[in-house]
Amino acid sequence: MKPIYIVSGLPRSGTSLLMQALQAGGLPVATDGKRKPDDDNPKGYVEIESIIDKLRDNPEFVFNFEDQVLKVIAYGLQYLPRGNYKIVYMERNIEEVLDSMEKMMDSKDEERESTKAAFIKLNEKTKVNISSREDMDVLFVNYNEILSSPEEQLGKVHRFFEDKNLDLAKMVDAVDNTLYRQRRAKGQ
Known about the structure:
Layout: E1 4-9, H1 15-25, H2 51-57, E2 69-71, E3 85-91, H3 94-105, H4 112-132, E4 136-142, H5 143-148, H6 150-160, H7 168-173
């Protein structure tokens, strides 16, 4: 069975950045082009709209994406049927994730602490689940570290997808630090 390549993580964790880097490196990406670039994601979202609903209704839908990389945010991974998966899971400073979500919604989250707790719980549960599945090979990558050391961090992704013969230099060139707008000091 061919592997299904997936990029995942919490919303606003840098999944689009990684999808763009993989595309630049030569890996075909699954996208329907429905969600256009905007101020929150100027280079685009690189996704299949409503992928979680599609997987929930028909888990085998994922097998339509052999030889492409598919973005499925953390919550959607629970719907993946038994298979052969190579998953790059993006992590990011949780405060930056929440800041980015608030900016995207153009409003303050009045329940920020409960949202934070829910996201931390989802993130930890998802990481345990995907790490324990025998049909999933998982690489954890940190968004903040990609921006500070793109060659080193994307080098890990490059090696993880070694069978895809990606162009690491083009992957690194796809990283645009000017889009890192929701910065938090380390430890915040």
